[in-house]
């Protein structure tokens, strides 16, 4: 099959006509599959619109051309659809998972997540994946008969398990949840709507997770180059990017650095997509799954990089961590951003009346933990801009974050 051609629907793809349904029963759409309906609900959600002013790496007012959570999510969806098309998967479900995966991220990127996790440490901590599930099942208020978006079982399963099982089949938490336990929001919802936390997720979800990694690697390189945190030639320290840069130089010896960087990003994405497709097809040939459930019950994930490419991709992440995420300029801004969220959380705890009216109602009847989680939900939904505005409203001095 040539690159770009869509594979026929595979036996192991999720079939919208065989969906396990929704927590709240609804009549089927006359014009859309259940998974297409899920994707449309995500796109029209308030939380999705807010992603346009949530930090990826650079705070929104540092420049118009840096990624935000919204543009990152769109790019993840594009890569995920490309993978799904090559593998014969359901593109609507894949797109749903790609577009929804960051809905639970708070303002100011990972700095905001660290701050909220510390604020909520005594009450179960903060996990952006669990927060995404809260958004999709409780915090969106758009429909008359239920809270949340009432997505299909397959969409919710993919959101929760895209990085693998959360628990052993016998019950104990698995993977990185082994020490901290399954996040409260996920554990609570799972008692109402069993997402089979002990199994792997569908191939559509596994594909969305790898699309997220590919987008991070390539587009954070692009933003780092634009910000002047490193230059194209600095990336020659890694064999993969060194080889791509050499190939670009061979074909375009007089290319300016802006176009060299853009070509590097484009070629890197194509290379990583091809590597995922090749390795996944090999694993599928060995496993021979005949259904989506066979994928879930297999002893390992079926979507993966080849070992050599996994090492190359890890080297890119290590470079970005050192040269971008831990750059003094980024660390200073993110440290100040954490302080803003610490201030807001403490203020709302001490004075719940400072919350908007719709968030104040009922706080007097809540336990300390319930009130803390309510405050955490409110702050997690903020955009960078709104968090700054709230801090300016409630405090005499607010960092500029530049």
Automatic annotation (TrEMBL):
GO terms for molecular function: dGTPase activity. SUPFAM superfamilies: HD-domain/PDEase-like. Gene3D superfamilies: Hypothetical protein af1432. It comes from the Bacteria. Residues 69-217 form the HD domain. GO terms for biological process: dGTP catabolic process. Transmembrane segments: none annotated. Keywords: Hydrolase. The keyword Ligase does not apply. InterPro entries: dGTPase, dGTPase-like, dNTPase_2, HD/PDEase_dom, HD_domain, PHydrolase_assoc_dom. Belongs to the dGTPase family. Type 2 subfamily. This is Deoxyguanosinetriphosphate triphosphohydrolase-like protein. It comes from Bradyrhizobium lablabi.
């Amino acid at each position: 099959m040539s690159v770009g051609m869509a594979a026929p629907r595979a036996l192991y793809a999720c079939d919208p006509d065989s969906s396990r349904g929704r927590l709240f029963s609804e009549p089927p759409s006359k014009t859309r599959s259940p998974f297409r309906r899920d994707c449309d609900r995500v796109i029209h959600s308030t939380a999705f619109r807010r992603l346009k002013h949530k930090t990826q790496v650079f705070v929104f007012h540092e420049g118009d051309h840096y990624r935000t959570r919204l543009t990152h999510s769109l790019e993840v969806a594009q890569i995920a659809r490309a993978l799904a098309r090559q593998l014969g998967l359901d593109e609507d479900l894949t797109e749903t998972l790609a577009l929804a995966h960051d809905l639970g991220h708070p303002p100011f990127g990972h700095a905001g997540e660290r701050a909220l996790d510390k604020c909520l440490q005594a009450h179960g901590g903060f996990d952006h994946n669990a927060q995404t599930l809260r958004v999709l099942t409780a915090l969106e208020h758009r429909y008359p008969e239920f809270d949340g978006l009432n997505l299909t079982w397959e969409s919710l399963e993919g959101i929760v398990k895209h990085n693998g099982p959360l628990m052993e089949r016998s019950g104990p938490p698995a993977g990185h949840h082994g020490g901290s336990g399954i996040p409260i929001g996920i554990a609570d919802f799972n008692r109402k709507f069993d997402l089979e936390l002990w199994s792997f997720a569908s191939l559509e979800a596994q594909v969305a997770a790898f699309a997220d990694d590919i987008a991070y690697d390539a587009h954070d390189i692009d933003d780092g180059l634009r910000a002047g945190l490193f230059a194209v030639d600095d990336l020659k320290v890694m064999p993969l990017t060194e080889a791509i840069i050499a190939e670009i130089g061979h074909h375009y010896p007089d290319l300016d650095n802006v176009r060299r960087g853009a070509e590097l990003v484009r070629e890197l994405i194509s290379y990583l997509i091809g590597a995922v497709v090749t390795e996944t097809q090999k694993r599928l040939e060995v496993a021979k799954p005949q259904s989506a459930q066979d994928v879930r019950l297999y002893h390992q994930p079926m979507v993966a990089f080849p070992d050599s490419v996994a090492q190359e991709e890890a080297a890119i992440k290590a470079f970005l961590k050192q040269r971008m995420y831990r750059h003094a300029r980024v660390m200073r801004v993110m440290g100040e951003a954490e302080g803003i969220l610490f201030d807001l959380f403490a203020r709302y705890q001490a004075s719940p009346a400072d919350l908007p009216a719709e968030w104040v109602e009922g706080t007097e009847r809540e336990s300390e933990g319930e009130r803390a989680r309510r405050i955490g939900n409110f702050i997690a939904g903020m955009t960078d801009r709104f968090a700054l505005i709230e801090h300016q409203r409630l405090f005499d001095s607010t960092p500029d974050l530049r």
